[in-house]
Amino acid sequence: MEQKFCFTISELGTCKVLSPVALSKRIGDAISNYVRDDEFIIYDLKAAHNETITFDRRHLIEKAGPREKIFFKPQKVHAAIVTCGGLCPGLNDVIRAVVMALWYQYGVHKISGIPFGYRGFLPKFGHDLITLKPDLVKDIHREGGTFLGSSRGYGDKTSEIVDTMEKHNINMLFTIGGDGTQKGSLRIAEEIERRGLNAAVIGIPKTIDNDLSFIEKSFGFETAVSEAAHAVNGAHVEASCAVNGIGLVKVMGRESGFIAAYTALGTRDVNFVLVPEVPFDLDGENGLLASLQRRLETRGHAVIVVAEGAGQEHLEAVSTEYDASGNKKLGDIGLFLQERIKNYFHAKKTEVSMRYIDPSYMIRATTANPIDSTYCARLGTYAVHAAMAGKTKMLVSHVNDVFVHIPTELAISERNRIHPESALWRDVIEATGQPYLMR
Question: Using alpha carbons only, how large is the chain's radius of gyration in Å?
């Protein structure tokens, strides 16, 4: 039976202010229309023959976009933007989009940037708010990283964060970040609610691993795959030009192997993809090492792509430490595999030429490609429309090719991961030729 999810979006109150965004309410007049609060999409598009489908309002996803009436009076808004966690292509594009939409579409002229993530809210770090205006941010999308700076952690300092928001009369907060950031975002919104404040908290999903639930594609993901493909191309050239050449490329993906999977599909030069969702053995007839040996014997070279979270069970000391964002610290599977592969073939007196490439931080720090940049601009603009309409405790997302509102609590409920029996993993197996199971 299909699992039902509650997609109801929290609202601060009734929208009574006429929006300064001049659109149409009529169809057929060649002017874009406002989005109504009774416009929804279906989450699960699967259907069976002769199936009768009924829709409950709670199980439909609210469409994003500008409303005819809004909750906030623009001249009374003090909006703030914060970027948290690791770097990701497109952060500056989102910041720019939020500022431009607030300023030019709604006439909001009090916009602040929070420096260095949630720690920028905390008085003990002594950071000042950054005044954001169009002239300051108009070119930042041409640069990698985040104009505001970023850091991990401190999202649990909820009371202090909301104290700072009250001190500066911030009544609109845009949180740009992944799972840890949005967990903090939800806590902030709940504290605001407990204090009886009228402040909107809108999340913009940033996770280069593409692992937030109900987020079909997080920004920066396409750029990451494009950049990882360059590394794979280099590894393939090196491997194919050497005697028993092996190219090993490590990409990001702590718990979800989407970058590794799509890089393999995008290049068609990868022979083995190792992801956290699909365990593998190193030794034995069906293990990775024996499979790699057979590949070299038949084709003379091989390329392996491994996600950073894959194969952690093989490392001698599995870490029990966590970083400031609550992520488990990982061992370096790339260096580990490099050593094990070399030792395996040395013991068999087989000459191999090994090349190991880890482009992770180069990928994180690059600028967004045009597709991602466009996506970032639209996410930022839709986030502003949601905030001005008094929506809160939600993320802007893209589902079934439509921009929508997703409750934050739902998005952080579990990680989005590759299912070993999915069409995506089947396509990866077909593209690489690797065994379904290396166990």
Answer: 24
Q: Which of 179, 209, 281, 372 is catalytic?
A: 209
| Residue 274, H or E segment | strand 272-274
Residue 397 — left, alpha, or beta (φ > 0 → left; ψ -120 to 50 → alpha)? Answer: beta
Count, residues in the chain: 439
CB distance 118 to 396 below 8 Å: no
CA 434 to CA 273: how far, in whole Å? 8
Sheet holding 301-307, edge to edge: 272-274, 301-307, 245-251, 353-357
Backbone φ and ψ for 62, nearest 5 degrees, come out as -70, 130
Q: Are 84 and 184 in contact (CB under 8 A)?
A: yes
> In degrees rounded to 5, what are phi and psi of residue 432?
-90, -30
What is the predicted pLDDT for the residue at 415?
Answer: 86
Q: Is position 209 annotated as part of the catalytic site? A: yes
CB atoms inside a 10 Å sphere around CB 422 = 13
Q: Residue 91's closest CA among 154, 151, 147?
A: 147
d(CA 331, CA 315): 7
Q: Which CATH architecture has domain 10-218+367-411?
A: 3-Layer(aba) Sandwich (3.40)
- The answer to whether 86 and 41 have CB atoms below 8 angstroms apart is no
How high is the pLDDT of residue 318? 54
Q: Could you state, in chain order, the average pLDDT of each consecutive group of 10 residues for the chain (439 residues)?
A: 81 97 89 93 75 79 97 98 95 98 98 97 96 97 95 94 98 95 96 96 90 86 95 97 97 93 96 97 96 97 97 77 66 96 96 95 93 96 98 95 95 90 96 94
**Fold type of domain 221-365+420-432:** Rossmann fold (3.40.50)
Q: What does DSSP say about strands 245-251 and 69-70: parallel, antiparallel, or unpaired?
A: unpaired
Domain ranges in the chain are 10-218+367-411, 221-365+420-432
Which residue intervals of 217-270 are DSSP H helices? 221-240, 258-267
- What amino acid is encoded at 138 in this protein? K
End-to-end C-alpha distance for the chain, whole angstroms: 32
Count CB atoms within 10 A of the CB of residue 343.
11
Measure the CA–CA gap between 33 and 22, rounded to whole angstroms.
Answer: 9
Same fold yes or no, 10-218+367-411 and 221-365+420-432: yes
